[in-house]
Amino acid sequence: MNSFDDFFAHYPPEVAPFLHQMLADYQATQPYKGFSIVHNVPLTQTTLLKIACLKAAGADLIVTNPSFMNEDQDAIQILENEKVSYVPLEQVKGEFDFLLDCGAELVDSCYARKGIVELTRTGAMRYQQHKEFHVPIVSVDDTRLKCLETCLGTGEGVYRAITQIANIDLTNKNILIFGYGKVGIGIAYYFSKITPNIIIAEADRERLTLIEHRGHQSVDAKQSQLIEHAAEASDLIITATGLKDIISDNYHTGAFKDKLLANAGAEDEFGFAFEASEVLADKKPVNFILKEPTLMEFLDPIFYAHNIAIDDALSNKKTGFRALDSKTDQAIVSQWAEHHDWTLDQLNAIF
Q1: What is the pLDDT of residue 217?
Q2: Which part of the chain is the S-adenosyl-L-homocysteine hydrolase NAD binding domain (predicted)?
Q3: Which residue range(s) make up the domain with 274?
Q4: 205: Cβ–Cβ under 8 A, 6 or more apart, which residues?
Q5: N or C: which end of the chain has fewer CB within 10 A?
Q6: Do 11 and 133 share a domain, yes or no?
Q7: Does a structural domain hold residue 79?
Q8: Rounded Cα distance, 14 and 17, in Å
Q9: How many domains does the chain have?
Q10: Is residue 144 part of a domain?
Q11: Does the predicted TM-score (pTM) go above 0.70?
């Protein structure tokens, strides 16, 4: 595949209905003509559909790639074929109309004239720390639709990656998962299809109650001895807290040695006490070893939302941090569920 058109043919409307509709709309109206936009989202081949829509909208684009993963070299070649500029993250500097960010990695090097859109929880927290921003900062993480990508999509990708590269059959094995946010929920959901032996470590009291309600075992992450005992009894340990060094900082690491270890977050959650070789994918988010870290059916709605959040910032110019408009959020979830034959009750039971 050598062009944006090839990728839209590879992912037909049945798989990516939102982006196909967006492409048609943007080709007809060019709503962002003349806008300068920096696009900092993991550069995989699936991301090219999202970028193609922005190009069709008339935007003057610079594409870069977050620091926590390697960019796809074939994707860079296709951007060159399509005359879209790719610039390494450390070289992206200056003033732009919009920053489409991931992990708030553009906040220190770039100035936004009209608005910022953030994709992740880590980035949302970083942007929230900037109390006096001069433009709207719209978060698509603080939405229900983000669960389609982060809970179902990332959960499925982590499950797919680990089961593909594990040197043991994980059926009925003991699994310890750190964190029961969106990512942890999805990981537990997919691994529960092959084993009932799942323990989830969580510090939040409400989440601990939710874990038990959903039929998993829970352990208070603040109880280090209980955690270490659970780790010693585990075959697979997965981190999904979003907190750097959480294992190294809080527990005796001997309990984690000689286990299958996987990180599902952007940060190095196992931390300084572990060599990269001790953790699958050298501590990077494990699903990013896959050619498609997240399947397109789960990326489609969040890619769509990350782009149209520009409209949110243009229509509501109130400065500071906020979530994407709730009506837009709810409409996307309902449309996705109907298209992919899920019910809202089924989604509610997961997240």
Answers
A1: 96
A2: 150-313
A3: 151-289
A4: none
A5: N
A6: yes
A7: yes
A8: 6
A9: 2
A10: no
A11: yes
